[in-house]
Design goal:
Length: about 270
């Protein structure tokens, strides 16, 4: 069984200029992707079927299943009847830790996260990040403005989020896309890890609003700066403050707003904005 294409063409009837016309449109595919460790399913996500090895590594890192890519001894991408399985094998110590986590989170209602332990897991403090480099405001503004031209999937479908990585002296080094904003960031995290690029050396660029899960994922990979086109939630700001992350949002061609730890950002004259 072959993997589905990330883009399909679908017939549609368009109403434009007070007239109907027949044709097709490029549509982003969405399918169920199961993350399995030792053939036991850990989670199922709805996602775009692209960059799946990156997705496997990134999700495993940002969800704390592993702490480094070498703890995955095998990744196999398998098309099945109802979707895609990402079959992975863990190092022994990580497999034991995952087993303990499953036993702690198991509950009688059959929901994905149950009980007080699950609430604590959802509201877990983000890991503190390192200092990271100082970053020029103009370069970050230019990076977020350039991101749309690098979104191949979204340019075809107008239905995908992107997560990019900008690094001083190198520009935008990597971009990953998905119909889900969390998935796009997981794919980017995996791509960075597989390319041996430290997230602590640059800034994450996001095309979405910033929720707490995105800040938690950024902290898990040690990213010190997030730049997003939309606004953050209040919890995301509090979490970024606690983790030491510089959070820039409402980023447009003319600038952005800084919600936490502005000391990393400086202007053209090398003077800090705060």
């Amino acid at each position: 069984m072959s993997l589905p294409s990330p883009v399909v063409r679908i017939g549609r009837t368009a109403w434009r200029d007070d007239a109907l016309s027949e044709g097709t449109r490029a549509i982003a595919e969405e399918c169920a992707v199961a993350f399995s460790y030792g053939r036991a399913t850990h989670a199922v996500m709805m996602a775009t079927p692209a960059d799946l090895e990156d997705f496997a590594v990134g999700f495993s890192l940002t969800e704390g299943v592993i702490t480094e890519p070498g703890q995955l001894s095998r990744i196999e991408v398998v098309a099945v009847r109802d979707g895609i399985e990402l079959r992975m094998d863990l190092a022994a110590e990580r497999h034991a830790a995952l087993d303990r986590r499953h036993r702690r989170l198991a509950g009688p209602t059959g929901c994905g996260m149950c009980g007080l332990d699950s609430l604590a897991e959802a509201m877990r403090p983000a890991a503190p990040v390192g200092a990271g480099p100082a970053m020029p405001a103009a370069a970050l503004r230019a990076a977020i403005a350039a991101l749309p031209s690098m979104q191949a999937l979204n340019n075809q479908t107008r239905a995908a989020h992107a997560a990019g990585f900008w690094q001083p002296g190198h520009g935008v080094r990597l971009v990953r896309e998905d119909v889900g904003r969390h998935n796009a960031l997981d794919k980017l995290a995996g791509a960075l890890a597989r390319a041996d690029i430290a997230a602590g050396t640059g800034a994450l660029l996001l095309t979405s609003r910033v929720s707490v899960e995105l800040v938690q994922k950024a902290a898990m990979i040690g990213a010190p700066v997030i730049v997003a086109v939309s606004a953050p939630t209040a919890l995301a700001v509090r979490t970024a403050n606690a983790a030491g992350i510089t959070l820039l949002a409402v980023a447009r061609a003319d600038g952005f707003e800084i919600f936490s730890h502005p000391q990393r950002i400086f202007d053209e004259q090398q003077s800090h904005v705060a």
